[in-house]
Amino acid sequence: MRAIDTFKVDKGTLSVLSSFEEADEADKAYWHSKTPQERMEALELMRQINYGYDPTTERLQRVLEIAELTPS
After folding, report:
1. pLDDT digit string (tens) for 20-36?
2. H or E element that contains 29
3. 5-40 as b/e, with b when 16 or more CB fall inside 10 Å?
4. pTM of the full predicted structure?
5. Phi-psi region of 41 (alpha: psi -120 to 50; beta: other; left: phi over 0)
């Protein structure tokens, strides 16, 4: 299960603000109230949303190349 599938929007905590400055202050206050662990989890969630990361399907491709030595 992906991390994004476990999160839901809490519509009871949404607020409408009258200016961008007020919104910036509210954002800062919100993130300052979170623990560093919660901030890292939110960062990981946003990264997965942007890049579509799924650890069960995204792996590095292994490449094997055989080089033959030719006598000179």
Report:
1. 999 999 999 999 999 99
2. helix 20-32
3. eeeeeeeeeeeeeeeeeeeeeeeeeeeeeeeeeeee
4. 0.58
5. alpha
